[in-house]
Write a structure and sequence with these properties.
The chain is α/β, with parallel strands linked by helices and 341 residues long. The chain has 13 helices and 11 strands. The chain has 2 domains: 234 residues, Aspartate Aminotransferase, domain 2; 89 residues, Aspartate Aminotransferase, domain 1, CATH 3.90.1150.10. The longest helix is centred in the C-terminal third of the chain and has 20 residues.
Length: 341
Amino acid sequence: MKRSFASDNNAGIHPDILAAISSVNAGHVVGYGDDRYTQSAIEKFREHFGGAADAHFVFGGTAANVLGLQAVTRPYNSILCTDVAHINTDECGAPEKFTGCKLLTVSGSEGKISIAEVQPLLHGLGDQHHVQPKVISISQSTELGTVYTPAEIKALADFAHRNQMLLHMDGARISNAAASLRVPLKAITADVGVNVLSFGGTKNGMMYGEAVIFFDRALSQDLKYIRKQGMQLASKMRFISAQFSALLSNDLWYRNAEHANQMAKRLAQEVRRLRNVRITQKVEANGVFAIVPRETLPALLKEYFFYVWNEASSEVRWMTSFDTTEEDIESFVGLLRHAVG
């Protein structure tokens, strides 16, 4: 299968990460995270996020979101997010099932949540007849490919904390966001008040593996039990840990994300030259959203796999990855140019 533009999940494994997996595949080590490779990976996270960062490894992004939220909520709480948030649209109700919480959504703008939209949802604070807002959840980068600035995140965190709430970040593509902003990972998390972070690895060159990071250990004291009960405790955790150690070394996380971002910008640049195609969102990370003529979709999808984001408007989403090449873009744009005339 040729490299597609459907999802950065579809990319392979970066060679350095594949080598890291192989490098720890010798002999026996203690399982379930009580090994030197896992401790080394945890130290890597502290280097990037500060000494207070408490990292716990899981298999996938949905688990990272759900377990992180479950650790800081009770079933009578609500979680506030945009209507396009991954936890609302693409996790099959898992957040509601495992936390017992109600998701309260706002429409957002450019994929971002705003304080003005959240404020009315707090009217029931302290009222026993209403779910109690506990967490504001944001995605970085967003599901629409946009990026929160440090100032925007801090404003949301300060608002949440003033109202006895917490700020959760779905960071499935946090590396792309940091690369876009050209800031360290800490600058858009610990430094600006994020309480719980789902840190993505799979979309940025890893085989599998995500991390749940807490910036206050009082919030994570029960996570080890929640993770086990949630069936996310890896017995051979060294193979997740080795990947994170590689990703967080020698700026690999940044180089992979920056390349994907640049390929998205290149794709958008070429697409803007075409007639009958309109880019609909800012291209700030590694996603390009565009409206294409509906009649062209069958021919395009026959050659390249990608997702139709909005069937009604014929809006599509094209994602680039760490292994996307300029040749991939040239070939795809050539097909697109022929299709749209």
